[in-house]
Amino acid sequence: MKEINIKNVAITFVVALIIWFIPAPEGVAENAWHLFAIFAATILGIILKAAPMGTMCMMAIGFTALTQVVAPGDAGKSITKALSGFGDKVIWLIGISFFIARGFIKTGLGNRIAFLFIRVFGKSSLGLAYGLGLADVCLAPAIPSNTARGGGIIYPIMKSMAISFDSVPEKPETHRKLGSFLTLNSYYMNLIASSMFLTGTASNPMCQKFAANLGIDITWMSWAAAGFVPGLVAFFVIPLVLYKLYPPELKKTGDAPKMAAQKLKEMGPISKNEWLMLLAFFILLFLWIFGGALSIDATTTAFIGLTLLLLTSVLTWEDVKSEKGAWDTIVWFAVLVMMASSLNELGFIGWFSNLIKIQIGGLSWQVAFPVIIVVYFFSHYIFASATAHVAAMYAALLGVGVSLGIPPMLLAMMLGFMGSIYGVLTHYGHGPAPVFFGSGYVDLKIWWLRGLEIGIVLLIIYMVVGGLWMKVLGYY
């Protein structure tokens, strides 16, 4: 029972029962309201950490099928519908991308790329920050788990560099020397990189799916095109802002390139498996960018990449079976998408959007747009999971905004970007946050204060630069 918090499970059930037995509001079908009760309780359970996310989602499938809310009176169709999320191509895109990410870690190619950038840029603390950030950006298109990317590749190298300059987690008086600055900057850069690509973090394809439910078509290339410019501006600006707000005591790190060169020397020449991994990476990028013209979608591309890695033995089937993070993501992702999509099909999302529209219906879209984005961004304080936040609010806010006249693609993309960058606010705001915070280099007060300051800067960059850039692209 170590994984289960009985008290919070009980709270979750009570909330579900209260919502279930409240009469359905006018305009909402009874089964839609009951499905909302299950959905809301699932999100609450995830936020409260009543049980692991997979456990909560398995419970949701069980109750959805048992109560037949998605197909009243037809038990067979109800269980089929409850499991429908597992057949969604977006689910498999993100799951397979996790397997591909394992190749970067297993072959050591991810570490090699990071050390190469440190060798070039690492002569100063600011250069070291940019080098680590650039490595993250280069890995982001093919490593959708920003936790694996940040926690599995960037964090160990960042920590090693800090300790090499006598900035040690166990010695608080040394934190400001280098470790505190690199910890915050590496985390922020991880989130910026996550926002730039559809495959940058697990919640992005969920946004794509919810947008598609409302008739808004987002492709890998359209996301990358929209995210590239604001992401690039944020990439250059954020380290400079943090350098002013929270400067490291050590400004010059002349030994870092030598240390990186030594690590590369220890790794030896690029291995055959690294070359094969690099080939697969470029094939993936090429097909994600140009696959539309060849009628090859993003999920098919991911299957091609995985097949190549399996046939060349860069990955084995044992690697695929043991990738727990991927299978875990496939499970909870499929369930949340199923429930959110079903709520949309049953008319609940449309009803809820109209309800909010009535409250703010007098606003022009130019005013409603920043209001929706700011509300979505700062509401992340109450969420311990970016995915739970996207599942709970993305579709509803997108529906409200579109009904108010906000250009659909502009709002869909901007809400999508927020799904990454709002993670700066707290030490639990995104997957890699506990890893970086757990280093001990930054205390809680500083983490939240710097997060708020950087969050405001990112909001301005994405809304102003990103908004203007999407106008240039013709997205609205």
From TrEMBL:
GO terms for molecular function: transmembrane transporter activity. The keyword Transcription does not apply. One of its GO terms (cellular component) is membrane. Keywords: Membrane, Transmembrane, Transmembrane helix. The chain crosses the membrane at residues 7-25, 31-48, 181-200, 220-243, 275-294, 300-317, 329-351, 363-383, 395-425, 445-470. It is found in: Membrane. Its main location: membrane. It is a multi-pass membrane protein. NCBIfam families: dass (TIGR00785). Belongs to the SLC13A/DASS transporter (TC 2.A.47) family. DIT1 subfamily. This is Anion permease. It comes from Chryseobacterium pennae.
